[in-house]
Amino acid sequence: MRIAITGSSKGIGEAIARKFLENGHIVTGIDVLPAAISHPNYTHIVADVLGELPEIDGVDILVNNAGVQNSGRDIEVNLQGTIRVTEKYGVRRGIKSIVFVASASASTGSEFPEYAASKGGIISYMKNVALRVAQWGATCNSISPGGVTTALNDRVMKDPALWQQIMEETPLKKWASAQEIAEWVYFVSAVNKSMTAQDIIVDNGESAKAKFVW
Ligand SMILES: NC(=O)c1ccc[n+]([C@@H]2O[C@H](COP(=O)([O-])OP(=O)(O)OC[C@H]3O[C@@H](n4cnc5c(N)ncnc54)[C@H](O)[C@@H]3O)[C@@H](O)[C@H]2O)c1
User: Fold this and answer.
1) Which end of the chain is more exposed for a tag (fewer CB within 10 A), N or C?
2) Which of 150, 175, 177 for a ligand 1 pocket mutation test, highest count of atoms within 8 Å of Cβ?
């Protein structure tokens, strides 16, 4: 199948692009940064999700992954950029699946205000899109990671005291890898045929944690 993915030059997006390539798919990545992947089935387009979007023929699966955190432009990039990309490549006859990489903060409300709001908006928008693409038999879902071990989080991953505090709040005492999030994205888009309009939280129990006082 033909996959289009945003934010494929680093972190979770790069892992998702590699996962589809390993499974024999044809991948086009869109990122403001140059390509991190060199593969015969990979095409890289340097573009901003808020700028002019390139023409891409026949997208079967769209993965909306590009995102920023506490940038002063979180609503624009994460929400408006995602909507632009989805309306162009996703909401059309022929689409088979759309996946959004949202965040556990969409449900908890924690983290940076505009970031949480942008991700909450993505989940509402995901449900709106799911209803519109269902007429073509397409699924549309989001994956909401908690902490993932990417460079985005170097600030807390490299500070032992902050990392210990985070682990105290995380029941499974670890974060997910980018490769594991890629497995989830692959499953909900390339394997799943019946689940749609759903958000899946993959957060090592972070948002389920509630201290029981007796
Ligand atoms: N890392 C985490 O802990 C975590 C947790 C929950 C959700 N997420 C979400 O997962 C997604 C990927 O995060 P990551 O940790 O891999 O981040 P990252 O910073 O490592 O990678 C993000 C990629 O998106 C690209 N990008 C940013 N702005 C763009 C724009 N305007 N147009 C095109 N490309 C753009 C960047 O250049 C980069 O390659 C983001 O949406 C993020 O909010 C991450």
Assistant:
1) C
2) 150
Q: Whose CA is nearest to atom 32 of ligand 1?
A: 48
What is d(CA 63, CA 49) in angstroms, rounded to the nearest whole number? Answer: 13
Mutate which of 52, 101, 200 to test ligand 1's pocket (most atoms within 8 Å of Cβ)?
101
Q: For the segment 8-35, what is each residue's pLDDT rounded down to a tens digit?
A: 999 999 999 999 999 999 999 999 999 9
Atom 20 of ligand 1, residue of closest alpha carbon: 11
Sign of CA dihedral 175, 177, 181, 183: negative
> Which domains, and CATH codes, for the chain?
2-148+176-205 (3.40.50.720)
Strand partners, 97: 61, 139
Contact assessment for residue 44 and residue 31, using Cβ atoms and an 8 Å cutoff: yes
